[in-house]
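Researcher: Next sequence.
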Amino acid sequence: MPKDEKKTAPEKKTPKQTQESKIKKAAYPGYGKVTKVELNDYQGMPNNGKMVLVYIRADAITKRVADMYSAKALEQLFKYDEVKEVCIFWRCELTGTNGEKSVDTVEKVDMTRKTAEKITWENFDYTNLGKIADTYYLSPSM
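Model: Next structure:
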């Protein structure tokens, strides 16, 4: 090793980084491929907690399957106190009337902590997700 080079200790992960990686891991619902997970400051305020945006690609998806796995991910994510809101985007490849292909959102589920705290998750029927979510979008293609 040249004299000029100094050994540096590997950087240690901070508790915040570790917590963020745990949240990102909890975002995987168990189906499809998570293409992106974003942790944003909730309501633009760094000390208000986090809004988690989860983008999932699943080309063979039905409403029932998306709802079931969304409920699982929501339950896991809201175990973290700093998670204040979660928005899950289910995306898949669609073929238009002219044969053109595109990847679009076919289901979007948005839930706040306030709503999540009203749910008894072990008894929750995921088919009610569209009724209880703060925002629920379902594409006509579904």
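Model: Helices lie at 15-26, 63-77, 113-116, 129-132. The chain has four helices and five strands.
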